[in-house]
Queue: 2 jobs
Job 1
Amino acid sequence: MLGPAAPALGWVPAPRYLLRRQRILPALEGISPGPVLEIGPGAGMLLQELHARGFQCHALETSAEARDLIHQLCVASDRAIQVHAVASEHWRERFPLVMAFEVLEHIEDDAGALAQWARWLAPGGTLLLSVPAHPRQWNAADVWAGHYRRYERRGLVERVTASGLRVEHVECIGFPLGNLTERLQARGFQRRIDATGETGAREANNDRSGIDRSALLKWYPLLRSWPGRLALRGAFAVQWATRGLPFGNGYLLGARKPA
């Protein structure tokens, strides 16, 4: 239920990550093991799970801190992930599966990024991505993390379609636990902004947004306890039941490149 974790190295799964993972893994069930590229994988924990399933895993990660953490976790787990700081010129139509979770909102030219990701997809390949939902939910956490935008369903589908891919699935994820944890996180960031006047450095915060779990380490034992697991199981059930409704705080989308 909780997936891999490495408390000794400072990384544990956040509730929002677990909610997203709980919907990503079923989406991967019908995809045969092969080369996979994850863009902005943070600690690379999802790639570790795919490696165990037989995938040949590649990570494109611009953060030096995240690349170092991925390396440490690979050594600890004995699972190899090829980590790249920059894209390769040889990636055109290379990957049957490309993934980017909570990445697109960090990129100013999101249309250009989607077009690039589509070029890396092999014919018939699948793109899986997630983004924060609903501009009306914009908050201090978005400001601090350096987001350029949040998405509505229609606009997201239009952007992905414009890149030449065929959208096959969209669902709204996170309700209600993801909404709650995001609000709590936003309050903390707002207090910090109010106290210091800082809005954060976009590049520095982007680099740490996928790996900083310092505030969650003390809560992880509670999450692992039977009450914590029971509550999480309930949150999974509600998320599944409301996935077709615009109640959550994120969108998960799957698209395919024409063969």
Job 2
Amino acid sequence: MTYDVESVRARFPSLATGTAHFDGPGGSQVPAVVADAVRDAMVSPLANRGVVTAAERAADAIVLDARRALGDLLGAPAEGVVFGRSMTQLTYDLARTLARTWQPGDEVVVTRLDHDANVRPWVQAAEAVGAVVRWVGFDPATGELDDVADVLSDRTRLVAVTAASNLIGTRPAVAEIGAAAHERGALFFVDGVHLTPHHPVDVEALGADFFACSPYKFFGPHCGVVAGRPEVLADLRPDKLVPSSDAVPERFELGTLPYEVLAGCTAAVDFIADLVPSAGSRRERVVASLATVGEHEDRLREKVESGLAELPGTVVWSRARRRTPTVLVTFTDHAVADAYRYLAGLGVNAPAGAFYAVETSRWLGLGDTGGLRIGLAPYSTGAEVDRLLDGLAAFLRSA
């Protein structure tokens, strides 16, 4: 399929400023249709969800539409889609709830490749009940995750792994890890925040009992989502108010949902489905669009990596065989923070840091400083990549 990046870019008001955005892993730009959906919801008659008044029915429709939209995006049952303030909040809530089912000596598996939101909630929950934390490292030379199966046992209760490293882009063999976890009777939690904007996701095929993502990383408003297997969610008893619904997934959503945010989430999924003109269901169009977007981003990533290879004193840490269009760079003689500021002065946003992937950064020997992260997005262009590379070349000459 043909990908018309200029047509896509025209739908993002913020891109008219001329800034080249390589900061998508921290939050994407927002198309006008998503902002319009948020506004339209806020100025429409709304009330608490119900079936009597028009305002109640409008609120209920927004919630149900958003669950269906995220289900289509993720290849997950709509009735298992849980909304929250952020992925971090939802993960903490689930960790505390699941920990009630653990006993001293039970085991929880986390990795050095993960964002801290898929590490610390599980570590802290395990410590609170006397469970054991098993760590899985990765090869700094290749960026490839070590074999998770090596640390599994009959006491493993949960395996938490990222679908893609937000720092170096590595995409582990998630489905294989999930199968190994289930063979041991463990639940499987996947952090899909960084993968979802770049590649088609099929939660059921991955074997995830829980799959987390953040709509603001794929053109939507700020909130978090966990797509859980409904039958697994039904067995969990989170803290909640007495009059709050005990239905799944509502029992996991504390208080009244932000209807305008959910309307924006639906609009974001519809936008993704229309990135590349195609026929079929929304799910089919989402998959077709993201597959084509992935090819576009991979071409640009190869251009970035080829250009970086020609810059002296540049070290590229994103080396895995399968990875997202995310490149982490450091410089032998220059601070990454200086490069960040220099590029910003040229209207090129490529931030520096560890980006909450503290275990990953430390495992690479970069401490908490991290590196310069170059994150490509569906609206990135070859001309912007040239600006980035020219800017880095000028920085290395001038610094």
